[in-house]
Q: What sequence folds into this?
DNA sequence: GCTTTAAAAAGTAAGGT
DNA sequence: ACCTTACTTTCTAAAGC
């Protein structure tokens, strides 16, 4: 019947419009975050897979699009924290987190936990810290993580503390507040992680 | 070495039951002191017992959910108190309503620190959820017994979703042996 | 899906002193 | 800097939206 045919067209158009909306949202957020085009493409692929696997039912298009971008950043090794992602999305942090966990699980993305070292280059450049500080921060993260200090800790707070410690050790001191602001964590978290890290590194200061 | 099973502690028991009679919650709320009833917000009336400490959710259908008790015995004792309170309001309550335990939350201690990153890889990323940016615990779902375990860096863990106290013991046994064969304990 | 109730684990956060 | 309170995760039943 003609009506069924029209309905199919209408549905197809609606689906097409939704997909275009999702992809344009991914593009808009990716631009706002300043991530490379390759990440937007990975995010688009993840979104299309989620669509194909019918994972959007009961969830908002924007939520899935945002989560796909969050996952893509991690997959490409240039993670943005949920806090940073939520600043360019109209979906709240908690919803992005739970949607990400859902699509990650359903699509079998097998995402490894974020390595704090992945945040070092970006945070250090925002703080205008030298390569020497970056190398020192990476060393602190590597060494203390091997000793088991990383379990359960947020990657951003962990990276922030190591950067703070490295800036002190390299005589390029940044205050806890400055580091806390770029990493979007509190000074309390930096203080706590910093104390554990310098103790594990056997540094007196 | 202390057997992790010895460290198991029941933290919460959830059970459901019913008095086999419909209730007018509005009048129960009026007569029962300490009752919280806001049907606009939630259809159940909340009544808390002090000893044993628990919270009972009483519904219009006469069905009741009891949560917060530290043992199955405490669940029975708490519900006995709730039943008596309702009888004092001259509401008919069956002599011994059937009480079904729906969930038991347990905590335990493996006695050694855990490298959650290594455990996440070892158990298989497809079998766990570990997002330290969102929550410090690693979520591990077991098929037998059908429970969920939350593993922490300290070596402590939480087991939930079980219906019998033995479920937690079996779960701890399986987790310990799994981590041992992966060489991730000690 | 949400609403409410309880409880533990450990990390993070916010407000007050 | 401390302390307290509170939110994140997991589970489960109930009735209703």
A:
């Amino acid at each position: 019947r003609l009506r069924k045919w029209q309905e199919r067209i209408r549905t197809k158009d609606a689906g097409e419009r939704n997909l275009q909306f999702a992809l344009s949202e991914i593009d808009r957020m990716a631009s706002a975050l300043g991530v490379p085009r390759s990440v937007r493409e990975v995010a688009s692929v993840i979104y299309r897979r989620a669509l194909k696997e019918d994972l959007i039912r009961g969830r908002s298009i924007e939520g899935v699009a945002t989560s796909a971008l969050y996952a893509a950043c991690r997959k490409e090794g240039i993670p943005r924290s949920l806090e940073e992602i939520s600043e360019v999305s109209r979906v709240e942090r908690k919803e992005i987190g739970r949607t990400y966990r859902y699509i990650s699980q359903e699509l079998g993305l097998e995402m490894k936990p974020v390595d704090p070292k992945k945040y070092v280059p970006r945070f250090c450049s925002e703080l205008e810290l030298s390569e020497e500080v970056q190398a020192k921060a990476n060393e602190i993260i590597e060494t203390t993580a091997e000793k088991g200090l990383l379990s359960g800790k947020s990657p951003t707070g962990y990276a922030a503390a190591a950067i703070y410690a490295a800036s002190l050790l390299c005589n390029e001191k940044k205050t806890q507040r400055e580091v806390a602001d770029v990493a979007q964590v509190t000074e309390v978290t930096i203080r706590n992680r910093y104390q554990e890290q310098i103790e594990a590194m056997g540094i007196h200061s | 070495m202390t057997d992790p099973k010895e460290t198991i502690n029941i933290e919460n028991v959830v059970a459901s039951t019913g008095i086999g009679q419909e209730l007018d919650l509005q009048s129960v709320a009026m007569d029962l002191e300490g009752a919280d009833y806001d049907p606009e917000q939630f259809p159940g009336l909340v009544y808390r017992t002090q000893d044993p400490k628990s919270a009972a959710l009483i519904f219009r259908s006469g069905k009741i959910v009891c949560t917060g008790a530290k043992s199955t015995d405490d669940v029975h004792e708490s519900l006995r108190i709730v039943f008596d309170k309702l009888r004092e309001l001259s509401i008919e309550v069956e002599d011994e309503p059937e009480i079904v335990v729906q969930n038991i939350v347990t905590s335990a201690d493996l006695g050694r620190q855990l490298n959650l990153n290594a455990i996440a890889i070892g158990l298989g990323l497809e079998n766990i959820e570990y997002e330290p940016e969102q929550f410090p615990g690693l979520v591990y779902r077991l098929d037998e017994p059908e429970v969920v375990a939350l593993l922490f860096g300290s070596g402590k863990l939480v087991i939930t979703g079980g219906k019998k106290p033995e479920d937690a013991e079996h779960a701890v046994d399986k987790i310990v042996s799994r981590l041992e064969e992966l060489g991730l304990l000690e």
